Amino acid sequence: MKLSTRITLAVIAVLLIPAVVGLQKTIDPARKQFQPGRGVGSVMTDVGSSPVVLPSQFVAGTVIGLQEVVAGLLWVRTDEFFHSGNYEAIVPMVRMITWLDPHMVDVYSVGAWHLDYNFVDSGQRADHRYFVPAVKFLEEGIANNPTIFDLYFDLAFVHYYLKAGDFVKAEKYMRQAAKHNPPTYVYREIAHALEKQGRVDDAIKQWHNCIDMGNAALAINPKDTGAINHVEVSKRNLDSTLIRKVERAGLASHPKDMEFEANFKRLGPRQFLISGKMNVPDGARVFLTLTDESYKEPTLKNFSWNVDMDATALWETQIHGISINKGEFHRKYDLSKDMKQYPFKKDKYILTMWFDPRCAPIAAQDVTGWMGEGITDKRYLDTSVPGVRMVKKVITLSRRDIL
């Protein structure tokens, strides 16, 4: 190509830039958010003190309509933050990425997991204040990708089932996932969520549905290993559920006294011991929360990682509960290194310690029943959740008791 031709083409390209930018502004009204110093172009994190700035070359890409390309590059950069342990920079990065490309499903999934699990204290306890933002982030991802099963199931299993122990919402989103051609394990998890709610007959029906689904696939392809495994796993779970239903049928007629006791003992500033006893098989867990007296879960209409940094919410539930061994439990807490996560700025605190049979292992449920129908307690029986019998002790503490 002649030099004069190259020069002419370069001039034409330069002259076209204003038209491209103007056209992009028309077709992408969100463009201004990515200009340097505005919107997400300069985001001050709420989980740290350093701003995360969208580099000028990335901004240029968004101006001319290359949002998806920029989003991919930022995702690579975010992965570097993960590996370097720079967790506080990750949240604004995933926020920028999902604004640029709202169809990057993995970003929503990883970002929500990061919020819910990665901000931890010196004892590796997650910061519960970020649970609601994690949920809202996934809800936004679902709204932007309504026909993809992954985010429905992430919300159902990773956050509601495993973290919150909210099996009703877990089932709800699992069923939403099931509408979008998911893997077979989604259908099996629906059965587990039903059983956790004490809806044993519904769980049995779901296991039959799983078996029928697998057999239908095998009728088409008898060598379908996925269908073979699905049928075998479903049959084993069905059989064990039927056995448990028979064996636990009489628990309500002779409930067992849990003889529950739980105590708080101050060991020093921000240090304390939780101990107690309960008449239940080994492997069960006692849950614990320690929060400001006025603490309530935040209500968010849309995703935001703004949390009340003055709030205290120590949350030890599900697999993080305190294990029971030979009828006793105990755990020492040292929060002296965790001023940011547990500021303890209020005057009064509520310490709640309880046992929820819905979350107990099978051996413990053989004594308690699915919903606690086999338990009682002279002092601490709690029936505040309809249909569930728990044991719970609540203690009000002052700031002086903790500090």
Walk me through the structure:
- This protein folds into 3 domains: 1-88, no CATH class; 183-247; 253-402, Immunoglobulins (Immunoglobulin-like).
- The protein contains 13 helices and 13 strands.
- Strands 6, 7, 8, 10, 12 and 13 form a 6-stranded antiparallel β-sheet that branches.
- With 403 residues, the chain is of the alpha+beta class.
- The N and C termini lie far apart (78 Å).
- Helix 8 packs antiparallel against helix 9.
Please render the helix and strand layout as text.
Blueprint: H1 3-27, E1 42-44, E2 51-53, H2 56-63, H3 67-84, H4 90-100, H5 105-118, H6 131-144, H7 149-164, H8 167-178, H9 185-196, H10 200-220, H11 225-247, E3 256-257, E4 261-268, E5 271-277, E6 285-292, E7 313-316, E8 322-323, E9 328-334, E10 348-355, H12 362-368, E11 375-376, E12 381-382, E13 390-398, H13 399-402
Parallel strand pairs: 3-11
Antiparallel strand pairs: 1-2, 4-5, 5-9, 6-7, 6-8, 6-10, 10-13, 12-13
